[in-house]
Amino acid sequence: MKFNAQIIVGMLAAGLASLALGCGPELECDAGERICVDNVSRTCVYGSWVDVKCEGASPVCDIKHGCVQATSNCGNGSIDVGEACDKENLANRTCADLIQGSTGTLRCLDNCQYDTNGCSKPEKVCTDDEKRCEGTELQKCSNNAWITSIDCASINQMICDSQTLSCITGCQGEPRCSDDGKSVISCKSGEESIESCASGTSCKLNGSGEPECMQ
Questions:
Q1: Whether residues 136 and 160 fall in one domain
Q2: How far apart are alpha carbons 118 and 102 in whole angstroms?
Q3: pLDDT in tens, 121-146
Q4: Among 112, 114, 132, 184, which residue is least crowded by beta carbons within 10 Å?
């Protein structure tokens, strides 16, 4: 069985890197998985993608065998050696399989290779593990979406503090303006009080350095 030298080098490099770190890297793909993108054979080695451009004596990318000689019967609807797809037969692949996180319509070109022009990545909403306060909820980002980490209001009357990005109890610190500048936050009877500013005014520090609703 013949192996492409570039793939072997990629496998060795990935293996040595893993040993040097003393732990396994975060997996991007499943071992042995292979896809063809723009005549480049992408093979999963040690959980990471290794790319090999198909050219020279092996100019065509085959979903099963990697870079091979062109011996396909493109146009018969079946995926033969050297073909990534054939007409409507997309080998059960979608845009997300070829471009991580993408949506849209994957098509097959007349040369039986994937057409990813109809694929588009989703708009970036947030970065993984990023945090924010949304009302009384402490939220974190996972897979480009905000999810509730904890509802502070359900824990002993706690609130979500946007400065520390954590749940806090009762009054915290001196009177201050809210992050959006639309209200004054102060402490009354051991609990936080939020006073909304009237239309046309916003929370600002007065001459004494105290927050106040003014024009």
A1: yes
A2: 10
A3: 778 888 888 999 998 899 999 878 89
A4: 132
Buried b (16+ CB within 10 A) or exposed e, 104-121: bebbbeebbbbebeebee
Conformational region of residue 181, where left means phi above 0, alpha means psi within -120 to 50, and beta covers everything else: left
Instruction: List pLDDT tens digits, range 83-95.
Output: 889 999 999 999 9
**Domain housing 205:** 170-215
**pTM for this prediction:** 0.34
Q: Do 128 and 116 fall into the same domain? A: no
**Residue closest to 45 by CA, chosen among 15, 65, 2:** 15
Whether 153 and 86 map to the same domain: the answer is: no
Residues 16 and 107 both lie in one domain: yes
Integer Cα distance of 170 and 124 in angstroms: 35
In the chain, the number of structural domains is 3
CA distance 58 to 90: 22
Within 10 Å of residue 166's Cβ, how many Cβ atoms? 14
Is residue 26 located within the same domain as residue 132? Answer: no
